[in-house]
Amino acid sequence: MTINLNRLFILCLFYLAPIIDAVSGYLILSELVSEGGTGSPSQVFRLLVLIIMLFILLQNKRFVYIASFLIGYLILIELYFFMVHQNIYGVVIGLIYGNKISYLLMIFFTLYLLIKKHLLSPIKLLMHVRNYVAITAVILVGSFVSGSGFHTYGEGTFGVKGFFAAGNGLGIFMGAGLLLSIYYWNLTRERYSLELSLLILFGTIVIGSKTALLLSLVGFVSIVVLLGNAILILSMFFLALIVIGTYFNEIIKLFVTVFDVILFRLENSDSILSWVFSNRDNYFIEAIDTVSFENYLLIRLFIGFGAYISFRDPYGFYSTIDILESDIVDLFFMYGAIMVAFYIVFVIKGIYQGILYRNFFLTLIFTLLMGHSFMAGHVIFNGMSGVLVPILFLLLLVMKKDIRCRK
Known about the structure:
Number of helices: 17
Structural class: mainly alpha
């Protein structure tokens, strides 16, 4: 029996990944597997997907050379600094984080190759992404309705993250995925796609984080506007006014329940900026106070000091990795100014390409995703939301405004 690697890759990336992540998240949240440890089901699964992509990319030597160079570069950085800190856990966790970046690059090259060979169309790719997010939404909604899911902020507060470990990464993944689902529905105008978008909208709301609720609002407004029915829009508006007027007190109580954690954090933040960043600015200030560029440590300015050491003293012993929750800051301390320059060029290229092709909605989604990456992290190094980065960038490169439903 011949295995079709292309189909296996699509199956793994879009249909098995959310299930594996849910299983892995359940094990972590149930404390059966340590958070930030090695050998989780998600890590093993993505390593297998990486191997599948390597076999697919053997069809194009140029992509293999580029991918091999980047993977080799990240491995060499971790191995080089392993000679300084000499911590086995440190080098393993460093290689895992380096692999996360390599994984995203490989996804881009693999999907680009499939589209270039006409084995996958941009519309089909969007459909697969929509299905990926819909599967995640089913898990979220199911756990919310049944009461079996883990809370986003803890017992007694609104919001569940189902069986997924990272609530912050889940919020931006579902929010950006919702907008991509709406974009796909707008292209196809399939009733089934609209229904799935509404399911994803509900799945995003139940997470209850700032990002999830904000993008849920953007998604809801987008659906209403794209429906393009003035009578329907006015009817919904007046119906909303009637409902608010009739159940005002109950709605206020519901509002407080939903936003209790968010409002509590706002009241206890030093400033609006600190609230927006969820006090992540304090992490950055602490890192600046800790980091040293003296003598040979000046090298970290250019190539960082690896994922394990990052901004910390290279001669210290640490039981876990320390993430600053801003991807661009983490990339700087881990891999230096070279990686930051690549990150900035990547973002500018994606936005420029979207504006050039007048694909403003995709550009908005990409900007929101990378804005979250810059301000709050949980994108580049997150197995779920990170997948959307190369996919969105690829869509901005290949989809023009006049593209329509060509499956």
